[in-house]
Amino acid sequence: MNPIVIKVGGSEGIDLDALCADVASLVHDGVPLVLVHGGSAETNRVATQLGHAPQFVTSPSGFTSRLTDRKALEIFEMVYCGSINKGIVERLQMAGVNAVGLSGIDGRLWEGRRKKNIRVLEDGKIRVLRDSWTGTVDRVNVDLLNLLMGQGYLPVLTPPGISEDGEAINVDGDRAAARTASALGADTLMLLSNVPGLLKAFPDESSLLREVAYEDFDEAMEFAEGRMRIKMLGAKEALDGGVGRVVLGDARNGQPVRAAMDGVGTVLMGAAK
Amino acid sequence: MNPIVIKVGGSEGIDLDALCADVASLVHDGVPLVLVHGGSAETNRVATQLGHAPQFVTSPSGFTSRLTDRKALEIFEMVYCGSINKGIVERLQMAGVNAVGLSGIDGRLWEGRRKKNIRVLEDGKIRVLRDSWTGTVDRVNVDLLNLLMGQGYLPVLTPPGISEDGEAINVDGDRAAARTASALGADTLMLLSNVPGLLKAFPDESSLLREVAYEDFDEAMEFAEGRMRIKMLGAKEALDGGVGRVVLGDARNGQPVRAAMDGVGTVLMGAAK
């Protein structure tokens, strides 16, 4: 049975208690899962408190991401790997699930290229930022995941990833989850956040697009705003990597994983085989 | 070949770069290792910056420890599991060692009892503090460590531990390392910190005690001050748990692990068999 890969975001409004209860109930039903999480809202809070307020940049192609200098990376790592990861592992352990939390640097789980110099759009002009601690996930250490899952552990994964030289790099969690789903041959990838899915008229939640066929992806991409653009990109990468379907779902309450399994949210289907 | 268990403290002055370089060189020589670390100085800094300055309590038997309410636990977890653990894993990965960082809650690695109510000495009187998030390590998940080591990963372990109910609990890193050394059947446990070892006249570093025979333990304990008292307790527990020798060594510079292997520091020997 191929695992389901669930990515839960770190934005305001996400209910990690509900998510972990739902994950635990599925694990007890024998569903193999891998959980990936974010932590952006909490990172912003802590970074601000520590006097290193978050900054965001926009790429020339219109994607927004965290400006990650070394100090920002270290705060990011502290919150994602320390606070959020261990908080989720604790919730799952309390619900009887033997979770193991790992970052992408542990065991070179998520390895890729560091992009030291990034191009950003500023006041309509392209500028090059140097000394960036960001990068991509090009390889997933599937052996480590299978080693743990084979012994009944539930992996709980979080950025950062690791460069070929062994440096920690800020990688996008949605795209890392997509890579992980492809590498594991997952049937389903869920990208759960604080919206019901892809909205035709953001932020009107009644404008939810329920299904996007593979050939309609570019058209649907037109509706995506902000973070949803990266989720769509991750979804496309997962489908192109052989994942059967991707569900963009809501993690604000209820049973977010079971709802997404039932197709609540925006369902993106792979190309017909 | 039984592994060496190395605990490196988190006090001011400890050189994690030197430690990791030394660990990497031993790993490349084929020496099986497990690394355990602390993070107290950095936790104190971050807690103070976040407006939750650290507080310490003294037990009726004279041991000092961090006052751990839920907020203190969460900051502790953030720094130990996020900053320090991932910083060490990154250093080792950059040196070509495939390290995997885990806390005691991951995979129930360090399981024990939560002590919700603790007795502390205050102005000469014993008081009971409630809602403490501290506890002991009674069981080590040796299977998980062997699973990882069997595939060539170096485990990098950090508090907190986990209660039987699955809650995160602040456990002492030296004693957790001692338990781990016993559980793994380690020949040697190293407790490395920012002093040369057990000093007869603390803080006079020329008063180093070079060796303590098992039968002289109680006498040597008289010289231990502050944190060294808990290290001595951990050392005793390790020796009683079958570890051949414990070295209290210096992690401020040089090659701290190789020096301790050569017996530099205070060497405590197990009871003659």
Main traits of this protein?
homodimer; 273 residues; Carbamate kinase; 4-stranded mixed sheet; globular
Task: For the largest sheet of chain A, list the strands in their spatial order.
Answer: 5-12-2-1-15-17-18-16
CATH homologous superfamily designation of chain A: Acetylglutamate kinase-like
Give the terminus-to-terminus CA distance of chain A: 20 Å
CATH class of chain A: Alpha Beta
| Spatial shape of chain A | globular
The stretches of 5 or more residues of chain A where confidence is low (pLDDT under 50) are none
Give the % helix of chain A: 25-40%
The interface involving the most residues is between: A-B, 43 and 43 residues
The number of strands of chain A is: 18
Mind telling me which CATH architecture of chain A this is? Answer: 3-Layer(aba) Sandwich
Order of helices and strands of chain A: EHEHEEHEEEEEEEHEEEHEEHHEHE
Largest sheet of chain A: 8 strands, mixed
Give Rg of chain A in angstroms.
18 Å
The overall average pLDDT of chain A, rounded, is 96
Protein model, in words:
- 2 copies of one chain form a homodimer.
- With 273 residues, the first copy, chain A, is α/β, with parallel strands linked by helices.
- Chain A has a single domain (4-269), classed as Carbamate kinase (3-Layer(aba) Sandwich), CATH 3.40.1160.10.
- Helix content of chain A is 34%, strand content 25%.
- The first copy, chain A, has helices spanning 16-28, 40-49, 70-94, 142-150, 173-184, 217-221, 227-240, 256-261; strands at residues 4-8, 33-37, 56-58, 64-66, 99-103, 110-112, 114-115, 118-122, 125-129, 134-135, 139-140, 154-158, 161-163, 168-169, 188-193, 211-212, 245-250, 266-269.
- In chain A, the strands form 5 sheets. Chain A has an 8-stranded mixed β-sheet, sandwiched between helices. A 4-stranded mixed β-sheet of chain A has the order 11-6-13-14, with helices on one face.
- The model of chain A has no long low-confidence stretch (mean pLDDT 96).
- At the A-B interface, helix 3, strand 5 and helix 4 of A face helix 3, strand 5 and helix 4 of B.
